[in-house]
Amino acid sequence: MVKQRIWRIGMVLGLLAWGLMGCAARPSAEVITVATDATWPPFEYVDADSKAIVGFDVDLMRAIAAAAGFEVRIVNVSWDALLAGVAQGEYDAAISVITITPERQQQMLFSAPYYNAGQVIVVRSDETALQFPADLAGRRAGAQLGTTGALEIEKVPGALLKTYDTIDLAFLDLLNGQIDAVVVDNPLAQGYVARYAGKLRIVGAPFTDEWYGIAVAPGRTDLLERINRGLQQVQASGQFAALEQQWLTGTQP
User: Which of 8, 144, 160, 247 matches a 20 to 30 Å C-alpha distance to 52?
Assistant: First the structure.
C-alpha cells in the first residue's frame, strides 16, 4: 500500500511538473510598440477622466493586433518624434492620422490605406472673406508642424504660415483671433467644429485627396504583412465600420 501511494504521488507530481513546463514553453504574444500623437480627436486623444489614450486609431490598431495575433503597447509622443522614431526604428509602428506621402514612403513602410481625409479650411464663424485656398494669400493660416496642412498652406503664394507643435494650439489661436484660418484634415476639422459649436466653421469642400496609413519601421516587412492581414480581417468582419460609427459619425470630442 505504501509503495502504491508513493507511486501515485510520484505520478501526480510528474504530471504537475509536465504541465508547468508546458505552460512555461508556450510563447506569449509578441508586443509591438506603436507610437501616436494623442492630440487629434476623435482619432487619438487623452481622455480627460481616465487619462487613457483613446480614439478611432487606437481601437483600430488594437483590433488589427487581435486579428493578426500580436499585442500593442501604445505610447504618446510628439508628432516630430513619432515620424523620426519610426524612421529610425525606435518604434515598431505608428498610427496617428498619418497621411501616406511619397516623401514619407522613402523613410518608412506604410500599410494599405485605411481612411481618406482631404484638407479643409476652418475659420471663425464670423469670417466671410475666406472660401478657397487661394483666399489665404496675405492671411495668417495655422497648421501643425510637418503635416500636409502646413504643406498646402506653403503652396499658396502670399499665405502666412504659422506652425504649431500640436493642432489644438492652432485652434486656440484661431478662436483668440491670432490667426485667420487653420488647414487640417477634414474629419479632425469636423471634431473641432463640433467641440466649439457656433464659434468655428468649415469653408468649402475638401481640396485634397489623402489617405491615412499605419507607418512601420524600415525593414519590418514581416510586421507590415501582419498588419495588412489584420486590417483586411477587421474591414471584412464589419469591425471597421462599427468603429467608424462609434468614433467618426457619433458625438465623440
Answer: 144
Give CA–CA dist 207/156, Å, rounded: 13
Instruction: Return the sign of the alpha-carbon dihedral for residues 221, 105, 141, 209.
Output: negative
Q: How would you classify the pairing of strands 93-94 and 109-110?
A: unpaired
Phi, psi of 94 (to 5 degrees): -150, 140
Domain 31-116+211-248 in CATH: superfamily?
Periplasmic binding protein-like II (3.40.190.10)
Q: What would the CATH number be for the domain defined by 119-203?
A: 3.40.190.10
Q: Which three cell numbers stand for residue 184?
A: 487640417
Same fold for the domain at 31-116+211-248 and the one at 119-203? yes
Question: What are the residues whose beta carbons fall under 8 Å from the beta carbon of 101, sequence distance 6 or more?
Answer: 148
Q: What residues does each domain of the chain span?
A: 31-116+211-248, 119-203
Can you give the pTM of this predicted structure?
0.71
Q: Are strands 115-116 and 119-124 parallel, antiparallel or unpaired?
A: unpaired
